[in-house]
Amino acid sequence: MPGRVGVMRHTVEVSDSLPPRPVYGQPSPWLAQPQMNPFGTPPAPEPVMPWAKAILVTVVVFLVAGVVGGWAWQQFSPLAQYTVDEQGGALGEEQMTRVFGPDGTFTAIGFVAAFLLGGALFWWLRNYGPWSVAVVVLGACLGSGVSWGVGMLLGHDPLTERLEAAKPGDLVAAPLELHTWTPAAAWLVGAALAAAVIAATTWRAEPVATGSEPVASEGNPPVH
């Protein structure tokens, strides 16, 4: 009998030193809890606005920019001056250098406006991926056409009628016009360049995934 009692006491002491069994449905204090934001997990993607809103905002922005650009083109373009005589109108050597002034002004206004606005819109629509480039470039083409149309509406006066109505010795300004369609592409080039610069900088700034994740250290306390 004394031997049996000693064995039973030994068994009870061993069982008391063991940790309690975990209850199913409750987290065990001995198990490491999952982290809310584990290392290496990419951040949640930003919400993407509907296509209709993105296209509408782009169209409105470049429409307003085209109107303002056309007005600025008509106001600040240097125009050549024809000197009227008995035979009609003629351009002097100094005035000949100003013939292509409207082309240069249209190019400068369009490139700057499209670069700034195109860059801002591309950054705003960057979640759309390559489609954002197409939206911005098409919007820039719209702005170029609107700018040309507004400028021609405000400043293109027929030259022949004004020369016939002028007197000898008068100066008659040349009509506001583009001599080639190359300046019209300045809007497209500016928007495309802005999108390319932003895409290159943001691509270099993004972290490169290595494909391996560090092993989480076990948080189990030592069992004595």
Automatic annotation (TrEMBL):
The UniProt keywords, alphabetically, are: Membrane, Transmembrane, Transmembrane helix
Residue ranges annotated as transmembrane are 54-73, 106-125, 132-154, 184-203
Out of the domains of life, which is the source? Bacteria
- For the keyword Transmembrane, the answer is yes
User: What protein does this entry describe?
Assistant: DUF2567 domain-containing protein
